[in-house]
Write a structure and sequence with these properties.
single chain; mainly alpha; ATP12-like; two-stranded antiparallel ribbon; 49% helix
Length: 112
């Protein structure tokens, strides 16, 4: 499998994580979304508003040194409380909206 990695350049410098690792992601759409987060910053960088950047930094740096298995288990723990996993039957309009919006996400997760 040929895996491409995408970097982000800010002011002609490569973006790095808080730990100093080169910021790379394996998905072009994600790289563009992170770049967009940085492009929307103005005079003061508000890191708390850059959710994708923060998530990627954590994944790249792995500050808790968790194994892939440990990371998956901790994510699965939170799914028990995720509203995407719970459905209503009434009102019918809300049930339909939930199916339309959430089922594609759940189908993707099932395939993965």
């Amino acid at each position: 499998m040929n895996l491409e990695w995408f970097e982000i350049n800010l002011d002609k410098k490569k973006l790095t994580t808080p730990s100093g690792n080169l910021f790379t992601v394996s998905n072009e759409a994600l790289a563009l979304a992170v770049a967009t987060e940085w492009n929307t910053q103005e005079d003061v960088i508000t890191r708390h508003s850059m959710h994708l950047t923060s998530l990627c930094n954590t994944a790249i740096d792995n500050p808790m040194h968790k194994s892939r298995k440990d990371l998956v288990q901790s994510i699965l723990h939170f799914l028990e409380t995720d509203t995407v996993c719970y459905r209503v039957t009434e009102p019918a309009e809300l049930a339909t909206l939930q199916d339309e919006q959430w089922e594609p996400l759940l189908n993707w997760a099932r395939r993965r």
